[in-house]
Design brief:
Radius of gyration: 14 Å
Order of helices and strands: EHEEEEHEHEE
Helix content: 25-40%
Distance between the termini: 27 Å
Mean pLDDT: 95
Structural class: alpha+beta
CATH architecture: 2-Layer Sandwich
Number of domains: 1
Low-confidence stretches: none
């Protein structure tokens, strides 16, 4: 039986809603939907590229806490509030996950919990992935 390891970024929202930033079970890591929050503030208001960069920094941090890297990512999901922002978002995603070439999904949604949030990303990783 595999042990579950929970990774928390320490935000009160995680406790109040009842979720973890990431969960590792065996060699698999699941990172929750992540946005561009840093020190309790939204980074890059009005700029999808900047929000995507911060979101990816947050995701890479969570992966590292779980013993994984961006190269271990096997699947990502991008949620955009404006589909026209896809070039800015995918440019940043390709920079971080391009070498691993995971499967991916990009969809437009009607909104996120904060109306100024433009992008949310979640990932799954398997530690030790090689080609």
């Amino acid at each position: 039986m595999s042990k579950r390891t929970r990774i928390s970024s320490g935000t009160p929202f995680e406790i109040n809603v009842g979720y973890s930033r990431a969960v590792r079970v065996g060699d698999t890591v699941f990172v929750s939907g992540t946005t561009a929050m840093k020190d309790g503030q939204l980074v890059g208001v009005g700029d999808c590229g900047a929000q995507t960069r911060q979101t990816l920094e947050n995701i890479v941090w969570a992966l590292e806490q779980a013993g994984a890297t961006a190269n271990d990512v096997v699947r990502y999901r991008i949620y955009l509030t404006n589909i026209n922002d896809w070039p800015a978002a995918t440019e940043e995603v390709a920079r971080v996950f391009g070498p691993a070439r995971p499967t991916g999904t990009l969809v437009a949604i009607t909104g996120l919990i904060n109306p100024e949030m433009l992008v949310e990303i979640e990932v799954d990783a398997i530690i030790g992935m090689t080609d």
